[in-house]
Amino acid sequence: MRGRQLSVLDDDIEAVLIGAEDIRTKIGELATVIDADYADREPLLVGVLKGAAMFMSDLARALSRPSTMEFMAVSSYGSSTTSSGVVRILKDLDRDISGQHVLIVEDIIDSGLTLSWLLKNLASRNPASIEVVALLRKPDASKVEVPVKYVGFDIPNDFVVGYGLDYAERYRDLPYIGRLKPAVYATR
Ligand code: PRP
Questions:
Q1: What are the φ and ψ backbone dihedral angles of 78, each rounded to 5 degrees?
Q2: Distance (Å) from CA 13 to ligand 1 centroid
């Protein structure tokens, strides 16, 4: 956290799971592999708002080859902590993706249900190819059959925030991924 002022949000974090420098290093590694895999194709990065905003912008800049960007926002029905697998589109893509090499950019795969739905939805629009890059993956993701080609970190089932991930819309702006103190979500 070179040169960074401590934020008041830091007080709500029990432990840093993945530091900012480790995130940067991992994104560089993912970008190297993606650059090689897409050496003869230009990927269309499809970021899933809002959580993937930070990862999307850092990944796009880490790639040494050109890419284009689109964003989707989806909301899964169910409680705020569990996903039901029924997904509603809040913001759709702005363009036709047929014939494009789509790379879905996700911040985290938890139950895998959002991604499972998204893959089917986007595949039905006839892209030339479709793959997924996720910065984080939780253990439950293995219960759903979702092919994720690129994964940054496999993490435990903790309540994590930061680097795009929120609790009640806050903490997305932290530069690292940390475990939230249980007292924070117990009192709200
Ligand atoms: C998070 C995350 C994924 C999804 C993963 O988004 O960004 O899209 O949940 O969960 P799943 O694997 O259990 O389906 P969220 O719905 O919290 O929206 P946000 O990105 O706007 O915070």
A1: 125, -170
A2: 20
User: What is the DSSP-derived secondary structure letter of residue 46?
Assistant: E
**How far are the Cα atoms of 22, 32, 101, 113 from residue 60, in angstroms, in the given order?**
17, 12, 15, 25
Cα gap 10→18, rounded to integer Å:
14
Among 80, 104, 107, 165, which is best to mutate for testing ligand 1, by the most ligand atoms less than 8 A from CB?
Answer: 107
Q: Give the separation between CA 10 and CA 12, rounded to whole angstroms.
A: 5
- Cα distance between residue 165 and residue 149, in whole Å: 21
Rounded to two decimals, the pTM is 0.92
Each of the 188 residues of the chain gets a pLDDT tens digit; together they read 556 777 788 889 999 999 999 999 999 999 999 999 999 999 999 999 999 999 999 999 999 999 999 999 998 766 555 566 678 999 999 999 999 999 999 999 998 989 999 999 999 999 999 999 999 999 887 778 889 999 999 999 999 999 999 999 999 999 999 999 999 988 65
The SS3 of residue 54 is helix
Is ligand 1 within 6 A of the CB of residue 138? no
Contact between 98 and 35 (Cβ < 8 Å): no
